[in-house]
Amino acid sequence: MIRFPPLTVPSFFHPIIEAWVIWLTTTFISIPAAFFYMFVDAPSALVRCLLASEPKCIVITGASSGIGTSLALAYAKPGVTIGLLGRDESLKKVAEAVNSRWTSAEILVCDVADTDKLAQTLKEFDDRHNIDLLFANAGQLGYTIDTDKEWEDQWDRIIDVNFVGAVATAMTGFKLMEKRKNRRGGQIAITSSISGYFFMPQTAYYNATKAALISFGRDLRYIGRQHNIKVTVITPGTIDTRMTTDPHQPVSLPSWLLTKPETLAQIIKRRLSYNPATIAYPFSEHLVSWVTQSLPTALLDNVTWLVGKVSSSFSQTGSRGFS
User: Fold this and answer.
1) Which of 33, 124, 217, 322 is disulfide-compatible with 233, CB 3.0–4.6 A?
2) Angstrom distance (rounded) from CA 56 to CA 51
3) Where would you find the membrane-spanning parts of this chain (predicted)?
C-alpha cells in the first residue's frame, strides 16, 4: 500500500498567507472592535474609577528598589498599611521613607523563589491585616559581567524568581482572597515587561518568563472574576532602575534615556483604580513591540536577527546571551 505524505501548506507560502490573515483580521475585526471598545470603555472606566475604593492594605514584592520602592511611596498615606517584601536590608530605608508619610510599613524579608516561606509570610501578614492589593513585582534581569557563572547555567534562578516566584505570589494571594466572606475579593497586579512581547534575543530567559506572565495573568483574570478578584498585568518599558543602569550589567543604559519609576508608579496607581486588563507604559515603546507581533513569522525571524546584531554592538558579551 502506497503511503502518501500528509498534506500541508508548503512553508514558502506561509509568509504571504500569514500577512493576508493579519490584514483581513486587522481590517475587518480588530479596527472595528477597537473603535467599539474605545467608546464603551471610556465612560465605563470613568465610572469604575469614581466608584473604586482605595486599598488600605498593600503588599509589594521586590520592594527594596526600583518600581517596588516607587509603588510603596506612591501608595503611602495615613491609614494605609504596606507590606514591603524583599531579600535584603535595604528594605529598612524604604520602610523609613514610607513611615515618614504617616503610613504603617512592615518589613517582610523573604526570597520569592522560596515558595514555602513566601506562602507562609503572606498568610501571616494577611491574618493580621487582610490584603486588598498584592503586587507580584519581584524580578531580575540576569547576571553581571564580573560573575564566574556561565550564562547557560543561569536559567534556573531567573525562572525561579521571575516566573515561579511571581506565580507563587499571585496564587498565594488568590487563595487568601478567594476564601473571604461576602465575595470581598481583592486585587492582584503582576509585573511582566515589554520584553514579554519582543526584546533583544540576548535576554532569552528573561523574555520567556515575562511572556509567560502575560499569558498567566490574562488567564488568571478570567478565573478571578467569579471570586471578585481583579487581576492586571503591568508591562513596563525601559525604566530607570538598577536592572537597566547597573554598570556591571552587560548592557547598561544612561538614565536620561529611561522613564523614571516614580512616573510609572503614579500611572499604575491611577489605572489600577478602574481595573484594566493590562497597563502598558511608556506607550510609545509598546507601539514598536506591538508592531513586531503583527509580522509574519519569517519576517519576525529576520527582525530578531537584526535586533540581536544591533544589540551585540552595545553588549559587553556580544551576541552571547546574558539573561
Assistant:
1) 217
2) 15
3) 20-40
